[in-house]
Amino acid sequence: MKRFLLAATAVATVSLAATSAFAGPTLDAVKKRGELVCGVHTGLAGFSAPDDKGNWKGLDVDVCRAVAAAVFGDDKKVKFVPLSAQQRLTALQSGEVDILSRNTTWTLTRDTANGLNFTPPNYYDGQGFLVTKKLGVKSAKELNGATVCVQTGTTTEQNLADYFRANNMKLNAVTIEKLEEVNAAYVAGRCDAYTSDASQLASIRANDVPTPDDHIILPEIISKEPLAPSVRHGDDQWFDIVKWTQYAMVSGEEYGITSANVDDVAKTATDPNVKRLLGVTPGMGAALGLDEKWGYNVIKQVGNYSESFEANVGPKTPLKLERGLNAQWNKGGLMYAPPVR
Amino acid sequence: MTEPNKGRSGASFFNDVRVRGIIAQIVVLGLFVGLIGYLVSNTIHNLEVRQIATGLGFLSREAGFDVSESVISYTPADTFGRVIIVGLLNTLKVAVFGVVIATVLGTVIGVSRLSSNWLVARLATVYVEGLRNIPLLLQLFFWYALITVSLPSPRQAHKFAEGWFLSNRGFKFPWPVWEHGHTLGVIGLLAAVIAIYLLGRRANRVQAETGNRPNVLIPGLAALIGLPTVGWLIGGAPTAFDVPALTGFNFSGGALISPEFAALLLGLSLYTSSFIAEIVRGGIIAVPWGQTEAAVALGLRRGLVVRLILLPQALRVVIPPLTSQYLNLVKNSSLAVAIGYPDLVGTANTTINQTGQAVEGVAMIMLAYLTVSLTISAFMNWYNGHISLRGGR
User: Fold this and answer.
1) Closest Cβ opposite residue A171 in set B24, B66, B350
2) B280: closest CA of chain A, how far (Å)
3) C-beta atoms of B65 and A157 within 8 A
4) Which residues, including other chains, have CB under 8 Å from residue A341's CB and lie 6 or more apart?
């Protein structure tokens, strides 16, 4: 009896502590805590992975650093929480993380029934197939009857089944939980093809197969995958802050402001758009509930979108991804920031 | 309070041991119910605040994802409800085979450890200590990697006979095209099992009355072979086989033992068998040596000593811990998701991810495991009661 009583008290204490963690607007909670808690991928080179010194690097990581720069004026005040594909939505819903920035596809269900609000996509992706050259396949349409490796807990599983059904092809899907194990199964030849977002396949081809030249990514892109950060329903101010932090990076590229020249630009700028973005003309920061130098801090400490892209996934990195859909709107892409005014 | 003074040592009401006991129980029960109520209402409230969908409506929506193997027919056009059942059946499939293999292996190894043959006993010791001291997840990874890496691709598959292929896509073999005759054959097999049971009971009764035990073996064997054959013949004696053949990337037709199922079954049954071996060994040692000596002194043959004296007494010690091992095996099968076997946890996890309804999904997983485990427990407890000493307590 005594032992049971003790256990019951312990359970009660723990659950009380756990449920009282989420209260009030997110910005206040983040400021009070002194750091931003950001949900990222457990390790996907180019998007979010720790480097050899243990610092998180990647396109998704930069979103969180930028938000920290906007809120605290210091991009280091971020705690990164690596999340599996299955944990990620629950972690954000339950308040364990303030932002989910983990190559997550923006879909209607997630945006509504799952209680998430998606900020602008930071990478427009699409699902593709990675196969060995030995297989002699030139198109995804030739994959009838193929065994396909896929990671569980992703929109990828559904796209895969949809594509094979739409084309009247027979599918054997081998669904494995952890990315490393899916990679191992593909490398061992358990599957004929590996399906995932094309950017992720590029990362896997570059880093995880023994000889990248023996593998090709098939030309077909079978889905739209707008990869976007997300926040919880019910806190519009926080939603705005994350959204406009991303727009600041995109605008920065549009106006030619980089982390290297931002100080000079701030001093000499004549363009009212630039002056508002960098806080030379005040008002924008106050509207967001942030310091007037929020935009300056983002670009100074993290860089504009182009800098982040080139450093993490661009042609000079192992992933060798072209800008494609992710170019600026005036260069044939979809990156379009609304006016800062 | 109508009972006179029983247990009331003249002390005041609140110092009464019985009253205190009752109050303590009421308080604890109240706390427990309150805690559960608080957790449930808090969860519902939070889900509402965050506008997360609730309810079981998602079960009838189209699942839209593929599952690599299934006992019942399944396509991505089926519902989430069906895919969860597919997962549950896959869990049960691996559990049933796993329990049987682990029991047989465990018994053999357990007896071997007691062998007077030095080599056999030492090998059994190495087996037990090796397998039970390595985490199961690692063993599963090991078997899965061994199967997928060491076996050839489908185009270079090992071919044993026409239609028997072994490759890193699994073991493919011919399987009868299921017809009416097969159904009748299975019914015949069930009838044979019942017939053997009845024969055994009759033999016991006759032995009790007359002292002579009628021969059960020959009629039993006749029923076991005869009845299914008769059923099969009545059904038109179908002989068509679905023979696997290489078409395109993979084999089509026939039956398949997938690498995922093989790795999981191998890992689970070897791991559990090492524990069962120890339980069996303990059970045998628990029967005093004097029992064997006494039986031999009565002139019983070695086989009869084991069957009539050793085994019934050892089983009483073995069954309760054995039940725990069966339960462990069933629950450990949830590690399947690590190597891509579509078990209950795997399919339910994908469902949770597609629908975002984690609370309902996890509750269903827990309920399913609880049901399976309690069923096994109930059966094993019944069996334990059946073989335990009667009138001894």
Assistant:
1) B66
2) 33
3) yes
4) A272, A273, A276, A284
Contacts of A113 in chain B (CB under 8 A): 52-53, 355-356
Q: Which residues, including other chains, have CB under 8 Å from residue B107's CB and lie 6 or more apart?
A: B276, B277, B280
How far A182 CA lies from chain B's nearest CA (Å)? Answer: 9
The residue of chain A nearest to residue B168, with distances taken between CA atoms, is: A190
Residue A291 gets which letter from DSSP?
-
Complete domains list, chain A, with CATH: 25-122+228-331 (3.40.190.10), 125-224 (3.40.190.10)
Sequential DSSP letters for A54-101: S-EESHHHHHHHHHHHHHHS-TT-EEEEEE-TTHHHHHHHTTS-SEE-
The SS3 call for residue B170 is strand
- The widest CA-to-CA distance across chain B, in whole angstroms, is 91
- Residues on chain B touching A171 (C-beta within 8 angstroms): 66
CA-CA distance, A63 to A250, in Å (whole number)? 11
B340 to A164: CB separation less than 8 angstroms, yes or no: no
Residue with tokens 């397998």: B131
Q: Is A164 on the interface with B (CB under 8 A)?
A: yes
**Cβ pairs bridging A and B (under 8 Å):** 144
Measured CA distances, B359 to B44, B62, B63, B304, B355 (Å):
10, 20, 18, 56, 11
Which positions in chain B touch A90 (Cβ < 8 Å)? Answer: 358
Q: Which residue(s) pair with A36 in the sheet?
A: A78
Tokens 């191998």: give the residue: B266
Task: Give the predicted TM-score (pTM) of the model.
Answer: 0.77
Cβ distance of B64 and A162 shorter than 8 Å:
yes
CATH number of B80-137+262-387: 1.10.3720.10
A102 contacts chain B (CB < 8 A): no
- Judging contacts by C-beta atoms under 8 Å, the chain A residues touching residue B349 are 86, 152-153, 177
Question: pLDDT 10s per residue in chain A (341 long)?
Answer: 444 444 444 444 444 334 333 434 899 999 999 999 999 998 888 999 999 898 999 999 999 999 999 999 999 999 999 998 778 888 998 899 999 999 999 989 889 888 899 999 999 999 999 999 988 899 999 999 899 999 886 778 889 999 999 999 988 899 988 888 899 999 998 999 999 998 889 888 988 888 888 999 998 999 999 999 999 998 999 999 999 999 999 999 999 999 999 999 999 999 999 999 999 999 999 999 999 999 999 999 999 999 999 999 999 988 888 898 999 999 999 999 999 98
